[in-house]
Structures are given as C-alpha cells and as structure tokens.
Amino acid sequence: MAEASNKLTRFGFSFARSGAHTSRTMMLAELSALLSYVPHPDAEKAEFLKAIDNENCLGKRSVRTRCLTYRHLVDLYSLDASLALFRALRFFWERDPSGQPLLALLCAFARDSVFRSTAPFILGATEGARILREELEDFIDEAEPGRFSKATLKSTAQNINSTWTQSGHLIGRARKFRSRAVPTAGSVSYALLLGYLTGVRGEALFKTDYVKLLDCSSERALELAEDASRRGWIVLKRVGNVIEVLFPSLVNAREMEWIREQD
C-alpha cells in the first residue's frame, strides 16, 4: 500500500495524515478567484504565491492570512502544473464552468485524507435526510479515537459540511439536508481520469469511488463521458461491452511511462 501511495503522489494524490479541512473548507471561492487572476494554464507555483502574497489578489487583510491561504490551497489543489491532478483540474475548469464545484471536490478528495474519510457518511445518507454536525463529529472521531479535541472536531465537521454544501451534496445553512449533486461532462471526465491514474481500466472506470462521489450512476457517467469525447476532452471507444477511455490531452509522456509501470 505504501509503495502504491508513493507512486500516486507523482500524479498529485496526497496521503498525508493531516488535511486542510481541519482549518478551512475546500475554499471554492478562493480557488475560483485565484484561477481567474492567474489564467494561463502553465503558470508555475511561484506565480500563485506572488498573486496571493504580494498582490493580495484574494483580498486578505494580513500577511499571515495570505500565507495561510496559500498553504491551504496548496494542500487542497497543489497549484502545481507539473502534476496531472492540478493540470487536469485547470483543463476542465476552463471548459466546464458548471462543473467547477465538483471538480474542486474531486481534487480535494484526492488530496485531503480527513475530508476523504467522511465520504461514506455523506454518500450513505438518503436524499432529504438531515445531516447532524454532531453525528459527523462522532464519525470522524470513531475513525481515529481521541485524535482531535472537541473544539477541533466541531470546526472540522463544520468545514466539511460546508464543502459538501458547496458541491451540492447538502443543502441548507444552519440545518443541513442530503441533496444530490449534479454531475457534468467535465466532472465525470475528471473522475474517470483519477480512476485511470490509480490503475483502473475499461468499464470499471465508471464504478470507482470518484464517480460515486458525483452522485452519478455508471450509466449516466457513460452518457456524460460520451459527451466529453464528442467535445474532444477525452477519448472514449466503445465496442459492445468493451470500453476504453484515454486522456491524450491530459497525460504527458513521462506520466504515461509511470502508468505503464503500474499496468
């Protein structure tokens, strides 16, 4: 497991025990503002730091807050175009604006272990069910008893509930209820790519945790993937029950070598 995890970090996945959600949500508004301010897709990490810290593009009131904001955005998204996860995030972000909340969610899920651990709790709730913060706190605490103080558990659960609300999985402000996210061609394509990078192939790509994260059936995911293929975002080949999905615009030559090693 450790070796497999180390290999996936080359693509941008993170398995660090800590997570940004102990302090922040998935910061959708900040990510959107930052990507608009630094629009070129090959921007280097230093450019994002300069935009946040020197130019205060996110309007933070203190130098310390700017530094923390940059650090949390790096934890959630890497902000590193040399990594497939962030490069693909930007690719679909520009082409599928309505899918941006789910694109951000998928990337945060791949990089934040604390947030990732709460997916069964949220996805397992029936539509319309009330989501109690206290029950989410208990769920987090049961995973690693005593790891977090009561205050940290409360703030972490609040942040995580806010993220699931931003993505469309929950609705409500003070009282949260389970809703259904609305998958898009771009978010499904990104979910398929994440599965592909972990070694999944063919029809199984449409049944991974990443696709399930979108509240999306495998049949609906296939329809949206076909739409993405028609748009030239991915390549989908289907002959009977045999399905092949490729990502020629998203995976570079070095990464293909790493993928061949996995296969």
Describe the protein.
By secondary structure, this protein is mostly helical. It folds into 3 domains: 13-94, no CATH class; 114-178, no CATH class; 185-262, Arc Repressor Mutant, subunit A (Orthogonal Bundle). Helices cover 55% and strands 6% of the residues. It has 14 helices and 5 strands. The chain has helices at residues 2-9, 28-37, 45-54, 63-77, 84-95, 100-111, 113-116, 119-123, 133-143, 150-166, 185-197, 209-212, 218-230, 253-262; strands at residues 130-131, 170-171, 176-178, 235-239, 242-246. The strands form 2 sheets. It has a 3-stranded antiparallel β-sheet. It has a two-stranded antiparallel sheet with strand order 4-5. Strand 4 and strand 5 form a beta hairpin. Helix 3 packs antiparallel against helix 4. The longest helix is centred in the middle third of the chain and has 17 residues, at 150-166. The radius of gyration is 18 Å and the shape is globular.
Class by helix and strand content? mainly alpha
Give the number of domains.
Answer: 3
Number of helices: 14
Please indicate the percent range of residues in DSSP E strands (runs of 2 or more).
5-15%
How far is the first residue's CA from the last residue's CA?
Answer: 16 Å
Q: Indicate the overall shape.
A: globular
Rg computed from alpha carbons, rounded to a whole number of angstroms:
18 Å
Q: Please describe the biggest sheet, giving its number of strands, its sense, and whether it closes into a barrel.
A: 3 strands, antiparallel
Uncertain runs are none
What is the overall pLDDT average? 96
Helix fraction bin: 40-55%
Order of neighbouring strands in the sheet with most strands: 1-3-2
Number of DSSP E strands = 5
The string of secondary-structure elements, in order, is: HHHHHHHHEHHEEHHHEEH
